[in-house]
Automatic annotation (TrEMBL):
GO terms for biological process: carbohydrate metabolic process; fructose 6-phosphate metabolic process; protein N-linked glycosylation; UDP-N-acetylglucosamine metabolic process. GO terms for cellular component: cytosol. Homodimer. This is Glutamine--fructose-6-phosphate aminotransferase [isomerizing]. Its main location: cytoplasm. The keyword Cytoplasm applies. Its EC number is 2.6.1.16. The gene is glmS. Residues 42-181, 214-359 form the SIS domain. Catalyzes the first step in hexosamine metabolism, converting fructose-6P into glucosamine-6P using glutamine as a nitrogen source. It comes from the Bacteria. One of its GO terms (molecular function) is carbohydrate derivative binding. It is found in: Cytoplasm.
Amino acid sequence: EKGGWSSFMRKEVSEQPDAVANTIRGRIVDGEVHIPELESFGDDELRGIRRITVVACGTAAYAGQVAKYAIEQWARVPVEIELSHEFRYREPVIDDGTLVISISQSGETMDTLMAVKYAREQGARTISICNTQGATIPRESDAVVYTHAGPEVAVASTKAFVAQITALYLFGLHLARVRGTLPHGALVDALAELQAIPAKIEEVLGESERVAQLAHWMADTRSVLFLGRHVGFPIALEGALKLKELAYIHAEGFAAGELKHGPIALIEPGQPVFVVVPSPRGSANLHPKVVSNIQEIRARGARVIAIAEAGDAAVLPFADEVIRIPLAAPLFEPLLAVVPLQIFAMELSQAKGLDVDQPRNLAKSVTVE
Ligand code: M6R
């Protein structure tokens, strides 16, 4: 079923444009978000939500962390991300204004399932974002918004991740419309941005060969750091997770703003650092701050690999390598920036002769605690 691909992961990475397109399909009607699966949540109920708690593990939790930025900006509801196993073993504050959203590709992750059950017992309403029809977590939830990434076989999650962000963004825009927190024009623009993503991921996939070369040059690397800011922060964490699980290389992701609070001490000559550079067009003006982080680590000998949008010339004097992503509104950049990081980890794993689809010690779904 690999259909000519050398690994399931390679196939699934290449299927990401479809994973996003299929998750959008049928959910944008006449320029409006439309999520029929959420009909059991009346508009009044959605307007009454005071807080959203997301429960998930691993890559799914990073999808939640990306979506937090978008949902808070669009729908003006506080969103917190909780690792399922941390959530259920304390006494989390849940009330009837709390919506609990679980994210799980498999729909079978034991800790996430138990977190959802716990939340329901406490009276919360629950929505499941899931990629597997009829799995246990959606059955235990009040509503399910399926991601339509298709079956994901490789242990490392890739196409499910971009589909999860897509589903959460659709949800966020739905919530914003119902709550009246976003002007109509902004809603229309955001939906158009989302619909443009599949073609842009396709463009990023066109860079695969360069990323593969980079990975082959770096096959002996013992440690890689990842920096990001805003929505680029969870992407840095995801890039590090991919590298750990696939290539067994020590990797850590940091919020770029934390550098001076500790991590910069790790920088010594030759240390590879991936930097997810925010768009220079972003309203928060984070771009110059991250460019100056790049200068700081470069001055200490870091080998900088920047993931930066097309035309961003400010990174050129300081980065050793620049991987380009097409222009997109800042909140949508994670859907593009994650792709080279997935490919990098996959290629490095392959360069080391490891099993890309089935890394040691890991299972596709963690159905025990
Ligand atoms: O099936 P789930 O989405 O609940 O799985 C969650 C994590 O176990 C999963 O994302 C894991 O972190 C992946 N191996 C990461 O690539």
